[in-house]
Amino acid sequence: MAVEAVNYHGVGRRKTAVARVYIRPGTGKVKINGKGYEDPVAYFNTQSWVRHAFEPLKVTGTQGQFDIVINVSGGGLSGQAGAVRLGLAKALVAYSEDYRKVLKEHGMLTRDARIVERKKYGLRKARRAPQFSKR
């Protein structure tokens, strides 16, 4: 009888991006949207977004201890990195409640609720009015 590895998961949201993150004890492999990546920079394009997305692993000292499967959609790369960060932090807490304190101290369990304000009619953008001409 084979023992099946347990997955721990967390859902993260940021702007309009949604990330479903699954972790299981392993060797540090990262799979994003069904494609394996040696270095996640190939997906996120920028080292700073990769650092931001995988910061919960650094803070908890668990780099290379988990295989990570990420399904992320919506928004741009910045929003997706933020969504992955929250999802990863929630998955780590699901794995062990001991990580909650350190992740909470670094503000990684809080959803950033800022989204783009909608454009209003009669205006150029959400709040930018057309230029006023007295004459």
Major sheet attributes: 5 strands, mixed
Give me the strand/helix succession: EEEEHHHEHH
What is the residue-mean pLDDT, rounded to a whole number? 92
**Share of β-strand residues:** 15-25%
The number of domains: 1
Helical residues, percent: 25-40%
The number of helical segments is 5
- Tell how many strands the DSSP assignment holds: 5
Strand order of the largest sheet: 1-2-5-3-4
Principal-axis shape equals: elongated
Secondary structure blueprint with pairings:
Layout: E1 8-14, E2 17-25, E3 30-32, E4 35-37, H1 41-44, H2 47-53, H3 55-60, E5 66-73, H4 77-95, H5 100-105
Parallel strand pairs: 3-5
Antiparallel strand pairs: 1-2, 2-5, 3-4
Helix pairs in contact: 2-4
What does this 3D model show about the protein?
The protein is α+β, with helices and mostly antiparallel strands and 135 residues long. It has one domain (8-105): Ribosomal Protein S5, domain 2, CATH 3.30.230. Helices cover 31% and strands 22% of the residues. It has 5 helices and 5 strands; from the N terminus they run ββββαααβαα. It has helices at 41-44, 47-53, 55-60, 77-95, 100-105, and strands spanning 8-14, 17-25, 30-32, 35-37, 66-73. The chain has a 5-stranded mixed β-sheet with strand order 1-2-5-3-4.
In short:
With 135 residues, this protein is α+β, with helices and mostly antiparallel strands. It is 31% helix and 22% strand.
Features:
single chain; 135 residues; alpha+beta; Ribosomal Protein S5, domain 2; five-stranded mixed sheet
